[in-house]
């Protein structure tokens, strides 16, 4: 089967666009913020697993996911609130907020372990 069905011009002779309507081209600030949050999640998890394997010096790298999470949250907020076309659906922006907040909390816990701060009352 051919994509063109008639010899006449117009909409009937144009090729079909098979992309989903949810896919948008280009990158937005909110997408970059969400990607930074995902990257910080993997880095923080790698730090935690490495420290659980006995290398407690890995907690010294905890400022990396903290910085990525803060930057990602700022970019997601700026892209979500001040951009006309966010480039994402609303649930994806909310997921970017949630993952960046979770990264910041996790990185702060790793930072507290690295510095030897008491988290719970003894």
Describe the structure.
- With 122 residues, this protein is an all-alpha fold.
- It has helices at 29-52, 63-82, 90-115.
- The chain has one domain (27-115).
- It is built from three helices and no strands.
- Helix 1 runs antiparallel to helix 2 (63-82), helix 1 runs parallel beside helix 3 and helix 2 (63-82) runs antiparallel to helix 3.
- The protein starts with 28 loop residues before the first helix and ends in a 7-residue tail after the last helix.
Quickly list its features.
mainly alpha, 122 residues, single chain, 3 helices
Q: What's this model, at a glance?
A:
The chain is mainly alpha-helical and 122 residues long. Helices cover 57% and strands 0% of the residues.
């Amino acid at each position: 089967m051919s994509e063109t069905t008639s010899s006449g011009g117009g909409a009937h002779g144009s090729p079909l666009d098979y992309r989903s309507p949810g896919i948008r081209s280009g990158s937005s600030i909110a997408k970059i913020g969400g990607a930074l949050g995902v990257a910080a999640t993997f880095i923080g998890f790698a730090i935690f697993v490495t420290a659980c394997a006995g290398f407690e010096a890995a907690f010294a790298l905890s400022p990396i996911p903290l910085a990525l999470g803060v930057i990602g949250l700022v970019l997601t907020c700026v892209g979500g609130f001040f951009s006309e076309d966010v480039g994402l659906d609303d649930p994806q922006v909310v997921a970017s907020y949630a993952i960046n907040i979770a990264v910041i909390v996790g990185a702060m816990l790793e930072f507290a372990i690295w510095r030897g701060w008491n988290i719970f009352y003894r």
